[in-house]
Specification:
Layout: H1 2-8, E1 14-17, H2 23-34, E2 39-44, H3 56-59, E3 69-70, H4 73-78, E4 82-85, H5 89-101, E5 105-108, H6 115-124, E6 129-132, H7 138-153, E7 159-166, H8 176-188, H9 193-196, E8 197-198, E9 213-219, E10 225-233, E11 236-244, H10 248-260, E12 267-269, H11 271-275
Parallel strand pairs: 1-2, 1-4, 2-3, 4-5, 5-6, 6-12, 7-9, 8-9
Antiparallel strand pairs: 7-10, 10-11
Amino acid sequence: MSDFQNSTQPQRPGVVVTGASGRMGQMLIRLLLDSPDLRLVGALERTGHDWIGRDVGQAMGGAPAGVVVSHDAVAAIAQAQAVIDFTAPAATVAFAELTAQARAVHVIGTTGFEPAHLDALRAAARHAPIIRAGNMSLGVNLLVGLTRKVAAALGTDWDIEVVEAHHRHKVDAPSGTALMLGEAAAEGRGASLDDLRTPAREGITGARAPGSIGFAAIRGGDVVGEHDVIFAAEGERIVLRHLATDRAIFARGALRAALWGQDKGPGEYDMHDVLGL
């Protein structure tokens, strides 16, 4: 009876992880190998990487996982119900096309997109669900909501600054999370971030423009992620802060998104949708 029951159990959705050798890729793979809800079916790396052809578990220094690292994205994604992708903008766009063809869920934690990249993702989302967020953690997404509400409650005489810090290896600035926070602040003021954004300052910049939203980025050491939204007025300041000390919070959020998206139709979603915020 037990064999029959096991054979009729619905199979856990299969997940492909891109950028398998990266810090986030390895974290995702470890969580997937222990997940009761999802299973690892593919691990992708760029052509020529020394992990290609090796069992991903052994490549990570552990026990065999039964999944061989590949550079064949077409074959890997064809067997998946979800792809989790923390790579680079151009690579993510290419993966989005394949994931849309497979009608799989594409969970995107990549940041640094240009408008043309976003247009391509929008086109792919017409065929399959795409869940994209600059940050996958519950705490950060709550911070985004708080930022929007505080900005809406305060007048333009309150200056807004977004300050973020990350490890020395991060290649884009401001971070995707900082931009999420800036967008939330702009929305709270009924405006577009493009209209209010002031990038990092240097030299003789002149006085601050009323109502603008400033950004500052710090890079150093092994900082996982720190974000402050500062509302400053005459005589007082409000500071909203989130500190990440373990990148597993982002990986857990990505797995939650991959599972949440299984019954969703084509379209663009974010972590606010996943978390019901």
